[in-house]
Amino acid sequence: MNRRLLFTAALAFATTTIAFAAEAAAVKNIVIVHGALADGSGWRKATEILEKRGFNVTIVQEPLTSLDEDVAATKRVLDLQDGPILLVGHSYGGMVITEAGNDPNVAGLVYVAAFQPDKDESVLSLASSKPTGSMDIKETKDGKYLYLDPAAFAADFAADLPKAEADFMARSQVFVSKQAFAAKINQPAWRTKRSWSIVATDDRSINPELERDMAKRAGSEVTEIKASHAVFVSQPEKVADAIEKAAKQAGK
């Protein structure tokens, strides 16, 4: 009788453990936040790869008008998801996910050639700590928005893309408010949640050494990809691989 009870208890425990493991591994929602000077359309290839692998991918088209408004736009998309979420941010999008990632449904954060700020840090303070060189950033006539000189866009942002594709990105870039770049983080989500970082080793928009330093500080698992700042466009398969790996690990 005791053996039977022991066997029943062991079976129940094993069944519960297997069910829990299956549930924990089920991080299938991926929400991507694009960076400044670009929009979410560049994530199409990576999205299609991830969807073929069974993920539900949503792109946030934040307005780039202020950090608060970009975080609010991200939260509206997070609210539409059913279940745990892996939140991904490129470039300035790293600022957004660092704040929006405090949402209780966010299981982990992935920084793709992105800023990974701590409390009271901004894009401006981080970028000036390890400059990249000659980013030809200009102001609009009203002095409120910033953009990258189209003539320099390919070299500074997308050096490993075909010329026609880089030129189109330059002509379709989304201007970002100066206010967004000056805004400081209040509560960095990576302090309480797991994080991963993709370092673009040929990045000329964010210093790769800065990307490494921020990832080390946060205890993020790092994947290095030889690519420009537009790594999500030029290396969609490798970026998708890193995101998939993070999604699986975030569920454990």
UniProtKB/TrEMBL annotation:
Single annotated GO MF = hydrolase activity
Q: Kinase among the record's keywords?
A: no
Q: Which UniProt keywords apply?
A: Hydrolase, Signal
Q: Which residues form the signal peptide?
A: 1-21
A Pfam family for this UniProt protein? Abhydrolase_6
SUPFAM superfamilies hit by this protein:
alpha/beta-Hydrolases (SSF53474)
Name the InterPro entries on file.
AB_hydrolase_1, AB_hydrolase_fold, Sec-Metab_Biosynth_Hydrolase
Residues of the AB hydrolase-1 domain: 30-242
This protein's name: Alpha/beta hydrolase
Question: What organism does the UniProt record list as the source?
Answer: Rhizobium hidalgonense
Taxon lineage: Bacteria, Pseudomonadati, Pseudomonadota, Alphaproteobacteria, Hyphomicrobiales
